[in-house]
Request: fold
Amino acid sequence: MIKIENVSFKYKESKMILNNLSFQINEGEIVAIVGKNGSGKSTIGKLMSGILKLKNGRILIDDIDISKSRNIEEINNKIGIVFQNPENQIIFSNIYDEIAFSLQNLSKEEIEKRIEESLKKVEMVEAINKDLYTLSLGQKQRVMIAEVLARNPKYIILDEPTTMIDSLGKEKIYEIIKNLKKQGYTIICITNLADEILIADRTLILEDGKIVAEICKNELLQKVDILKKYKIKSPTILEIVARLKENGINIDIEDYNLEQLVNSLSRSFKV
Reply:
């Protein structure tokens, strides 16, 4: 479990970005953190991963205080972060070398094992010896996710992971995220994209450095107005289901995806 306790943060000569922020992330769930630009969502991701130094409040990762310098290595082994633009994260051109770079303290056999296993999880194992710069942005991002997975973290922070990627690439990464959850990973998805709300178990809305609303997945349809209130774009499929309900057509779906919507509509209108 990750606990954020009374965290406040500001950059030099700026207004307060995070204001006495508190929330927790439970093991094995996908949590989306959403908010307008400047709301502080990327800042909290960088604080959780240790990129930014925490000065006010506490962040506990499995009860380990992230602010204690002696815990840095242990924290790095528990949590990994992937950023928006994969090209800004690439160090080596070769995929094998890129992933191996963060595994230097391991044996050659263990490095090879971890690289292969992590690439399998993102469906990129066939590209193990390819040049990263020949890949699409979506494929590069999958390699960046694999690089984090190779370190065997428990928690993965994805900071707007699909913003720069085309629709097919987005769908592939959403599929990977859902599969990682099934494998026991805990995912924190920092996003501005409506569709990423749909794969989350909980959505936390951040505004002016505070959590102003929390929506569980099974509450999404009832709380569309809350998304609108804080200017968070509602997923299109959620709007469709809400509009159908207003017109007396009740759609029962667990996952808000097109296939389930079509199947449910077919059952509703079956004669």
